Amino acid sequence: MRDALSNSLVNIAANNSKAILLTGDHGYALFDSFRKSYPKQYVNAGIAEQNMVGVAAGLARTGYRPIVYGLSAFVPIRVLEQIKLDVCHDNLPVIFLGDGAGFVYGTLGTSHQSTEDIAATRAIPNLTIFSPCDRFEMSAVMRAATEIGGPVYIRIGKCDLGDVHPQEISYKTGDLIELTQADSDITFFATGSMVKSAQQLAQEFNNANVVSVPTLKPINTQQVVSLLKKSRVAVVFEEHNVNAGLGAVICEISAELCPIRILRIGVTDRFSEHCGDYGYLLHEHGLDLATLRDKIRKYLQTITL
Amino acid sequence: MAYAGSAVHIGCAFSIVEILCVLYNNFLRFPENDCEHENRDYLILSKGHGVMAQYACMRYLDWLSQDELDVYFSNGSQLKGLSDSRVKGLEVTSGSLGHGLSVGVGMAFGASLSGSDQKTFVIVGDGEINEGSVWEALLFASHHQLKNLLVIVDANGYQAMGKTDEVIGLGNIESKFESFGFDVQTVDGHSEASLQETIEQLLSLPTAKPKALIANTVKGKGVSFMENNNVWHYSRLNSETLKQALAEIDGA
Hints:
By secondary structure, chain A is of the alpha/beta class. In chain A, about 35% of the residues lie in helices and about 20% in strands. Chain A has 2 domains: about 1-155, Rossmann fold, CATH 3.40.50; about 175-305, 3-Layer(aba) Sandwich (Rossmann fold), CATH 3.40.50.920. In chain A, strands 2-1-3-4-6-5-10 form a 7-stranded mixed beta sheet, with helices on both faces. The radius of gyration of chain A is 19 Å and the shape is globular. The termini of chain A are far apart. Chain B is α/β, with parallel strands linked by helices. Helix content of chain B is about 35%, strand content about 15%. In chain B, helix 6 links the parallel strand 2 (about 120-125) and strand 3 (about 150-155). The two termini of chain B are about 20 Å apart. The interface of A and B includes residues 53 and 64 of A.
């Protein structure tokens, strides 16, 4: 997935001499081939994220196509106001890459974890939000992002979970991707790292339909409704606070247009308690496979009573 | 404009009147008087609270109509209280302080990368430079040798709640900018002749450094009861104070 990101960046620079990659002193090996091939289109803006986003806005105003890279704990969280005011207010074509979303940097602690970035960015007008789940979605949303012509936030979570899709995908912004053709009365909606988990659990729950959600905003509402219509119950998976993330997106649409029972699974509005690696923290937050299985079982039992 | 809209931030606008006049009259290049011309120079009012002074200049340039000015600060108007990028002639949305300088640095950087001779002028308030992002922007401008950038500090000595020295002391602003790698001059910000001469000097320096001008100004300049009286950061004009203010300005 990181290779897909790195290659996408190189491709963007190859196709557009106005593309400029700015990083807040993060990224290291990720940009090796970019720096080698297009050194003039690479700027390390230093540990100064607020200025970096303002500079990106200025570059966009003068005809450039900036791509701003940071850890998602900093881009977009630290610079939310710059994104809102300097970039999104005028719909400027700036792509924000927020890496390490969720618990990727688990052992480093709360400063480097981000489970609030979807919630925070969802409320900013004009901003498109992507959350790819594997290398194929990564490449697809990078292609889509360059065509949007407005601001985009790409949430990049755990990158080494393996492929979800069997091959390259063609993708239209906003669409959900049905990974199974099962005719189940249960639908699993998942985004980013959690798509793999939803896939792994589907068989145990009536061969649940598994749907990957690479775009959080704007989302194809009609497609969500048609998926809800054929379901008795839905489960939403995300490595993000259950408040205002994907679970909320699906619930909002459901409540207005197609009410069904929905279980939201994510971070339950709390910070990590302990130091721990990715697997440890998934367990601490109840997002490991065993706890997910248990939560879904219990919920299904409750609603069938 | 301030009276018609019952607007606040009058003092903030009066400290930068001469700075704006000198920039528009002598330095800013707008081919064909087009405020959106792609080869224009960039003027960024990072202290968006002073936008009334800029609107007045834009009226003279015929970019705004009198009708538009008369509804400034009013319901339904395009002219919001603080600088807004959707108004033609304004480059950024500011007022949340510490934003405009970075955007201006980005525009100067873009012009520099493109090999364009466009210049970028950014006006920041002395209160505004409390913001840490301002100093991030100075580091970046200096590192990238943005000699096409002139930062003007409107040093009126006040911010919203009091004197800058009493709120959070700035020390010597000129030496701070120097230590950040800028060519710096200090000037009387209400003397158009000094402003013009000093800006010309700064812009003609052969160095690769970005430039800064510390303009010593008076908040509320031109109206005796507003000068250095910080209640005019927030106070509104009534018919009586309007009459007095106009009499003093017209008499000057």
